[in-house]
Amino acid sequence: MAFQLSPGSFAPGARVGILGGGQLGRMLAMAAAGLGLKAHIFAPEPDSPAFDVCVEKTVAAYEDEAALAFFAANVDVITYEFENVPARTAALLSDLCLVRPSAAALAACQDRLVEKEFLADIGIPTAAYMRVDDAGSMARAVAQLGRPSILKTRRFGYDGKGQVLVREGADLAVTFRSLGGGPAILEAIVPFAKEVSVVAARGADGAFAAYDVCENRHENHILKVTRAPARISPGTAAEAVELTRAIAEALDYVGVIAVEMFVVEQAGGGEQLRVNEIAPRVHNSGHWTLDGSATSQFEQHIRAIVGWPLGATWRHGETVEMENLIGEEVFGFERVLREPGASLHLYGKAEARAGRKMGHVTRVAPGHKA
Amino acid sequence: MAFQLSPGSFAPGARVGILGGGQLGRMLAMAAAGLGLKAHIFAPEPDSPAFDVCVEKTVAAYEDEAALAFFAANVDVITYEFENVPARTAALLSDLCLVRPSAAALAACQDRLVEKEFLADIGIPTAAYMRVDDAGSMARAVAQLGRPSILKTRRFGYDGKGQVLVREGADLAVTFRSLGGGPAILEAIVPFAKEVSVVAARGADGAFAAYDVCENRHENHILKVTRAPARISPGTAAEAVELTRAIAEALDYVGVIAVEMFVVEQAGGGEQLRVNEIAPRVHNSGHWTLDGSATSQFEQHIRAIVGWPLGATWRHGETVEMENLIGEEVFGFERVLREPGASLHLYGKAEARAGRKMGHVTRVAPGHKA
């Protein structure tokens, strides 16, 4: 006898390669282990948190082609925990191994201009934006979009890094150079009432499953609290899921995807959505699913990339709240342990630097929804 | 700044040593990682499932004193996933490191005769039993307890191994020798209506927290299904928990403990409990807590041994069912993945031998209790 498998799917015991060794890679590796799969982490930092929970590790730079070839030869499918995988790395791995989500999906999400153009192509609303390559295009963009507006590097931004507010009176050439003077985009300010996100998955068979839309509160540009479900109208929530489905289908996506959106309240009542960012990976705003849903986003991503059926995405509890423990906040972890029903997750990071995500807490409010 | 810790407790990053590399060690290691702790697994089998998810491993025999000394020097606290840790191993480790639960608690639970005498001493009802050391004491025991009765080796029994039914007409000397002729115990048959178990934890501070009493169904002497809560009267359930608390306190226990009991229906109505076996560890009948409780038994055990507060033990769902996937049953895993809301756990074992526990499924029925 042997495992009964659907076409194209892997058997338990298959080797899942994960690029990136942070907390997302760590939680993906644990989810893989829970399903009887073997995680192999590829990351450059020798003290990567994900190394604590994997079967095999490769410590090498993302540009180390020999190490990438060894990695690809020793796993059955490759995924990643971050969108800034160099294009050449993704291309090289894709030649040698199945990569999910695909290098094309990755490419669409790692450059803010490409991402906005992709969204415009499929008719999905975003903030107004203009391409900025030099002081001249910067001046034209500001003339068009007004002030305040936001200048963002096209690549490598996260947690508010790589962006600057363009204020009244600011010197435009100085502002442009303050971000390094590389390819950038200027975005109009969206006067949003709420920031929400949709975490969803698309299976290798095209099946789609979204978690409840959740709302996010940032502090110092870092996600602080996620609450599910978002306090928006049912119609807006359904539309948010449909936008996410459209994005996933247009990208022929396999795996978990997260779409951040702004909710703008209309003058005449009603809510309008504008997509802010796509993350081609598991997402901080989906951590609540570890304790608050039938299937965690990490398990869901692993199911998708090995070709298994997606799991149920229903929510436990009337509401679920996730709070990040940032920097020295982690030192008070015992208070969380004493809080009845709070679930503590720590990432095993040695040093509690300012702004560093050290762990999170989930609180599932009683009341079951199924 | 630094971690705010209660006296005697360890900080995140502490190293948890686990003796034994099977599925219990594996799930303990994952729980430790979830709390930011580092798991070090000590096990003799090079392909131990727990090696997939630990920071460090020692592959050595339980009698290898140099390896044990290295292990003890490299961890902050030691625990185990099985009760058959050799006494000398436990003593040696206890001299070098904090061991939880203690070697004394372990000793009380690894010999069926010692265990029964301990229970009798603290006034806890069990099946009638007699010590059997040779053919003579065997004959006397059978004369006393009647037939059918059950002969069990005093040590190393599990999943029905190390026991034999003493039938009418069976040759007693042959029966005694069939179990190896070593120290044994004869137990009277308990005409039970149900087998239940209590999985509970006692903290380093003496706090006690039990999960709902659950009922167990065995097939071929191997646990097949656990259901929480057990269908017994509230009074019987409360008594089962109190018996467990008494046992844990008498052992000055730290960690998760499981107590298996028989429920006997009285002629005049009502239910009576008889303790069958104590497991000084996490237990198969507590696997449902991974998906069906606020805190899993694995996290609870880790919290206890590092001196952290115990977590909430309430149940999600009106009922929770856990089904073991034994041997070739695992080959049908995809059916489980397709079942809405079923949670699949696979242990990463390469070979699906008959009678081997390969994984389990949890089903949480809607309806939340908090």
UniProtKB/TrEMBL annotation, chains A, B:
A Gene Ontology BP annotation from the UniProt entry: 'de novo' IMP biosynthetic process
Keywords: ATP-binding, Ligase, Nucleotide-binding, Purine biosynthesis
Listed PROSITE patterns: ATP_GRASP
Gene Ontology CC: cytosol
Pathway membership, UniProt: Purine metabolism; IMP biosynthesis via de novo pathway; 5-amino-1-(5-phospho-D-ribosyl)imidazole-4-carboxylate from 5-amino-1-(5-phospho-D-ribosyl)imidazole (N5-CAIR route): step 1/2
Subunit relationships: Homodimer.
Protein family according to the UniProt entry: Belongs to the PurK/PurT family.
Classification via NCBIfam families: PRK06019.1-2, PRK06019.1-5, purK
Function in brief: Catalyzes the ATP-dependent conversion of 5-aminoimidazole ribonucleotide (AIR) and HCO(3)- to N5-carboxyaminoimidazole ribonucleotide (N5-CAIR). Catalyzes the ATP-dependent conversion of 5-aminoimidazole ribonucleotide (AIR) and HCO(3)(-) to N5-carboxyaminoimidazole ribonucleotide (N5-CAIR).
Protein name: N5-carboxyaminoimidazole ribonucleotide synthase
Organism: Methylocella tundrae
